[in-house]
Amino acid sequence: MFRVTRRYEFAASHRLHSGELSEVENRQLYGKCNNPHGHGHNYVVEVSVRGPLEGATGRAVDIAALDEMVGREVVGPFDHHNLNREVAEFASVVPTSENLGLEICRRLKRNWKQAFPGEWPKLEKIRIGETSRNVFEVGADEIE
Ligand code: NI
Predict the structure, then answer these.
(1) CB 50 within 8 A of CB 122
(2) Could you list the active site residues?
(3) What's the CA gap between 80 and 12, in Å, rounded?
(4) 66, 47 contact by CB (below 8 A)
(5) From ligand 1's centre to the CA of 131, what distance in Å?
(6) Are 101 and 116 in contact, with CB atoms under 8 Å apart?
(7) How many angstroms is it from 30 CA to the middle of ligand 1?
(8) pLDDT (tens digit, 9 = 90+) per residue, 40-58?
(9) Which domains are seen in the chain, by residue range?
(10) Are 136 and 43 in contact (CB under 8 A)?
(11) Which of 100, 115, 124, 142 has the most CB atoms around its CB within 10 Å?
């Protein structure tokens, strides 16, 4: 069994602001990330996939099929966009990296069988780096 990780990048802006908290609570909780005008990050997303080595091709994962899906579902809709305003899921959900990782994982799971109709490969996990110091990881089997 092989584990293959493919790295993608996109730039996006966001504002951390929860509709469930007051203006003061939002400022206290999120600090400068609550700035009304938002700010940007160069996000790095690592998609990890596992599957057996396929004898005929010598590969475990069709990288082109993965690239096509991640481009269509994640990089295309997120790159150079404002996450709060331009990605419907974040109209009411705070676009923290945790929620972003969750949304990316959900999108890939939802489209997985279309890209990979066979038994393998399976989606294993998503890692998302917001800054060089923050990396968030979510397992595909750990979410709904
Ligand atoms: Ni931020």
Answers:
(1) yes
(2) 33, 80, 130
(3) 5
(4) yes
(5) 9
(6) no
(7) 9
(8) 999 999 999 999 999 999 9
(9) 2-142 (3.30.479.10)
(10) no
(11) 100
